[in-house]
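User: For documentation purposes, I need each entry recorded in a consistent format: the amino acid sequence on its own, followed directly by the corresponding structure tokens. There are two entries in this batch. Please keep commentary to a minimum and don't merge the entries.

Assistant: Recorded as requested. Entry 1:
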Amino acid sequence: MMNGGPPPPPPMMNGAPPPPPPMMKGAPPPPPMMNGGGPPPPPQSNKLNKPTKQIPKSATQLRAFNWSKMPDSRVTGTIFATLDESSLYKFMDLEDIDRTFDASAGKKTNGEGEKTLERIKSQRMQQISVLENRRQQNCTILLSKLKMTNDELIRVLFKMDSDGELAPDMMEQLLKFTPTVEEKTMLEEHQDEIENLARADRFLYEISKIDHYEERLRCLHYQKKFKERLAECEPKMSSVICATKELKNSKRLKKFIEVVLAFGNYMNRGARGGAYGFRVSSLNKLTDTKASSNRSITLLHYIIRVCEKQWRDILRLDEDFPNIKEASKVNITELEKEISGLRQGLDFIEREVTWHRGQGSSPPGDRFRLAMNEFTAQVYKYGVTFDNVTTMFGEDFKTTQPEDFFGTFDSFVDNFREAKKDLENMKKKEEEEERKKKEA
């Protein structure tokens, strides 16, 4: 199948010997002179205005390399438009390829101060609480975990926790214990006996005296979470940007793709041959084509052997992509949700900063806007860079997700490394067997 190319009008004569008349094979829109780009017939031309592929003919029917051929109309502007694999055939042992991948040969074969109990009871009898019992208990537990006095906690809040004494999860819990209007009214009735208030009640009474306590706490919580979430988002975007640069700049990958194009056009006949490019997913199908006599040898093994002899630098191709694996884990939908949440939080911060300025007090920190501007600029850079690299490889950036695109290359790099190891092990085994023969 031609995987997304423009459908040719019937009859489907791609790849047939010289078709009379040539006008019957146009692609839409059908100018009379443009044929469908099939194999060898001399009169044929193609949509790229390039000469017909000069591909040697195999002496026998070969096992097909199940690639996804790129439609000729998609080749312009991609990496494939700069390739000419025809110059590579003179470096390839075509007879050996014929023997190794002969379709007619071989068939399939087959993872804390202690206190006495009386003292505690005495203190409890003297304490006053206006809070609902469970709320008082939960607030007291939280305050004991904080290990701060009320004065210390209030100091931290006024400093906007510049020393990092409050963990984000503690602030999240504190937000559950902001005094309600009813609680404030009841606590005010005991303002002359503050010393007798239970710990949780006294805490709520004292923080109720702070202007915009809840808003201040929310700002602080957002600031903490912003840093946390930003720290999570930035590496994701960075990995995509870096992986994109790696793919664009790898000369080894470009050469390897050219070699694969040569093999694919040599091994495939008819409509599947004569390709000017292929979908990147085809790189992971190199392991599906097996040699006829030794099915442990795949087309990927074979191509690596050829590269070892003719284009040895290609063997270091897997060193060119240190960021591919991380980039393949990026979920763009989740990342966009995270960015949207950060922007909404920033809107709340800006409203609170404006209120504090109106009161003449110091704002919680208006450095967020600068940080967010830098952040959104990086997001934009991320999007543009990814669009560029997908286009380079002939993929549609509108429908291609980063995790799928980079996942394809990550799998290929893993397969490439594994195939190299296989070949090294085979070579060691052969050398060992040869040594034993000589010693015998």
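Entry 2:
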Amino acid sequence: MIGLVKPTSGTAYVHGMDINTDMGNIYTNMGVCPQHEYLLLTRTYLSYSFRS
């Protein structure tokens, strides 16, 4: 759903946007909620919050 692996069939929608064609728009509205603390050890909270 976040675009790391291309789908082989079917489609999915995020707020009405097709993940096959609208990932750029989806990324602008997507947040990250890490499940493991190792992500926070390699980058600061601010670097995640203010990514370009």
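Summary note for entry 2:
The radius of gyration is 13 Å.
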